[in-house]
């Protein structure tokens, strides 16, 4: 056990770990425990919070994942962070947002720890066949123009978990930075690395979309793998060939049919396990 190495995830600690004069430093909130940082960020966005507003929690009571799943968010273990972006564009121009954030988070984790996770299409940070974290993107549209009013991107990264900190059903599927590296990283340092990587990604999001997607393809461990495509019908075995510019996964089914599947429709599993 590691009782002597407590960290603290306060606003002061995150600001101290950020580079000086970070452009988002006046809009970082650390409310402690929340239901979901995405829910909190969406409330802030609806009441006019600016681009770059960041909500960082030390625990979530109702952390959410993609496709209605929950995200295990125990106190003192992970970083649960959501950012409000107002890119001023159409939803079609943001199809790559989750991918861009994924590869940015690989960079953030690498900058902190020296260790670069992979990405399981489309939104899971993975290591050694296990899930290190996940990303949940939610858009709010302006009903008059159809443009994106805000995007809330939420990221959870397992940082200080030991195996027994995960519930039994997750132990075979989930990992943490501590379990992978043997180092108990300070969560405020991880949060600062995430914010830094997010603001760098934000500057490239629209002007350098192809470069971000090229980086995503390098990080994505699903490409080249045998997968099972889980949609509404029976799981279909396939080979994952590529990720297109909008984040769709190009697969070849065993009958030779090639299809691009989207993250709203399907999820994928490896043939033998989670990744
Ligand atoms: C997934 O596993 O499908 C995505 C998980 C995303 C979890 C993060 S934690 C911070 C933010 N708040 C949430 O409720 N979800 C995201």
What is the element layout, followed by pairings?
Layout: H1 11-17, E1 28-34, H2 37-46, E2 54-60, E3 78-85, H3 97-113, E4 118-120, E5 124-127, E6 130-141, E7 148-158, H4 177-181, H5 187-204, H6 209-219, E8 226-230, E9 236-243, E10 249-253, E11 258-261, E12 267-270
Parallel strand pairs: 1-2
Antiparallel strand pairs: 2-3, 3-7, 4-5, 5-6, 6-7, 8-9, 8-12, 9-10, 10-11
This protein binds biotin.
Q: Globular, elongated, flat, extended or rod-shaped: what is the shape?
A: globular
Into which percent range does the helicity of residues fall?
10-25%
Question: Strand percentage, roughly?
Answer: 25-35%
| Secondary structural class | alpha+beta
Mean pLDDT across every amino acid position: 95
The radius of gyration over CA amounts to 18 Å
Alpha carbon gap, first and last residue: 29 Å
Please outline the major beta sheet: 7 strands, mixed
Number of strands: 12
Question: Helical segment tally?
Answer: 6
Please trace the helix and strand order, writing H or E for each element. Answer: HEHEEHEEEEHHHEEEEE
- Oligomer description: single chain
What low-confidence regions span 5 or more consecutive residues with pLDDT below 50? none
What is the strand arrangement across the widest sheet? 1-2-3-7-6-5-4
Query: Ions, cofactors, ligands: which are bound?
Result: biotin
């Amino acid at each position: 056990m590691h009782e002597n190495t407590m960290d603290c995830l306060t606003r002061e600690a995150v600001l101290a770990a950020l580079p000086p004069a970070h452009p988002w430093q006046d809009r970082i909130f650390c409310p402690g425990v929340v239901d979901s940082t995405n829910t909190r960020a969406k409330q802030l966005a609806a009441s006019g919070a600016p681009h770059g507003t960041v909500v960082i929690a030390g625990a979530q009571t109702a952390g959410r994942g993609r496709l209605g799943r929950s995200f295990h968010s125990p106190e003192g273990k992970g970083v649960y962070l959501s950012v409000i972006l107002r890119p001023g564009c159409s939803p079609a121009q943001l199809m790559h947002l989750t991918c861009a954030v994924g590869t940015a988070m690989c960079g953030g984790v690498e900058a902190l720890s020296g260790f670069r996770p992979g990405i399981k299409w489309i939104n899971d940070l993975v290591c050694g066949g296990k899930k290190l974290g996940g990303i949940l993107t939610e858009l709010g549209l302006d009903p008059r123009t159809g443009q994106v009013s805000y995007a809330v991107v939420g990221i959870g990264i397992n940082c200080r978990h030991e195996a027994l900190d995960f519930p039994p059903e997750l132990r075979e599927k989930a990992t943490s930075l501590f379990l992978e590296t043997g180092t108990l990283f300070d969560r405020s340092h991880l949060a600062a690395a995430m914010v830094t990587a997010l603001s760098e990604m934000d500057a490239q999001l629209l002007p350098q979309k192809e470069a971000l997607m090229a980086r995503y393809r390098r990080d994505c461990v699903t490409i080249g793998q045998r997968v099972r495509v889980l949609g509404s019908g029976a799981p279909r075995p396939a080979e994952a060939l590529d990720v297109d510019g909008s984040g769709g996964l190009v697969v070849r089914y065993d009958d030779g049919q090639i299809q691009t599947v989207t993250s709203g429709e399907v999820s994928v599993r490896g043939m033998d396990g989670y990744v």
